[in-house]
Amino acid sequence: MTDARSGAGLVACDVPLVERYDLALVDLDGVAYRGHEPIDHASDGLVAARDRGMRLVFVTNNASREPEQVADQLTGLAIPTSPDEVMTAAQAAAQLLRSRLKAGERVLVVGGAGLRTAVREAGYVVVDSADDEPAAVAQGFAPEVGWTELAEAAYAIERGAWHVASNLDLSLPTARGFAPGNGSLVGAVRAATGVTPDSAGKPSPTMYRMAVERAGARSALVVGDRLDTDLAGARSGGFDGLHVLTGVSSARDDVLAAPGERPHYVGADLRALLVPHAAPERAGDGWWRCGSASARVVDGVLELGRGGDGGPDHELDEVRAACAAAWAAVDEGVTLDASSVPELAAGVTAG
């Protein structure tokens, strides 16, 4: 468990992450903010990371808004950002359209201003009706999308239009809780047509690669809150990934994660960019140890060692030890009893 790309485990970084990686590919919802509200320590962590030489690109599955709007929101939350530091799923969807369509073809856009602008700037004619005979339907999330727009998408797809979704996130975090995401709206169209769309958003690594190319980075770190999109995209694209426990996926989800969704690092919040990260080591007695924490799997049951000072470092180390023990057991063919995995690290803060 020492090399980030040689296996599907946690890795160690004996220097702060800002010193190992020159670019952070940072998710937005659940990482930098929740709805219109800031997330604790997001500004502290990102501003300090930038001050210490790490470049930032905000990579989001949200396709509803223009990069300028996203940058303005971040700046208003004390995270100064320029539009060229924002990469949206709308831009990725527009690039995916180029793989099949010629410039000047018609595209029915179901979504917000960000998607409409991206499709138009890619050289396509944006239409709103299936009767315009579009070659493709580009679908992204926007709060105003309703039955009428979904019906037009279904009509066009039934007539042969190519269905492209900006992302397939079933939910999105808001200040009030989790709300239906674009994947839920896409599901309604898929249920009506029987057609599975192609998707440009995470977990496809397309946006990550676009962002790295734009920045000219040497070593990029993906930072996200969702295992099934952010961290899965990191694994599939060959990038190292940091899971911050401020959004959708929990520490317990980390322990139960499938190999293709496992993070390389786990942190409480974005201050995790500013510190080194320990990796568990396997002892001869079968326990995995990380700092003062330990864990093992016996007959498919996860056991956590007793002891530790109960502080935030111990709680994070307990998550890391539990991940290492569970992942190693699963990779060795053991069926892990999910009911033996407790909720972990609730309310932890970065060290």
UniProtKB/TrEMBL annotation:
* Coiled coil segments of this chain: none
Query: Keyword Metal-binding: yes or no?
Result: no
Family matches, as SUPFAM superfamilies = HAD-like
Superkingdom is Bacteria
Q: Name one GO molecular function term.
A: hydrolase activity
| This protein's UniProt keywords | Hydrolase
The molecule here is called HAD-IIA family hydrolase
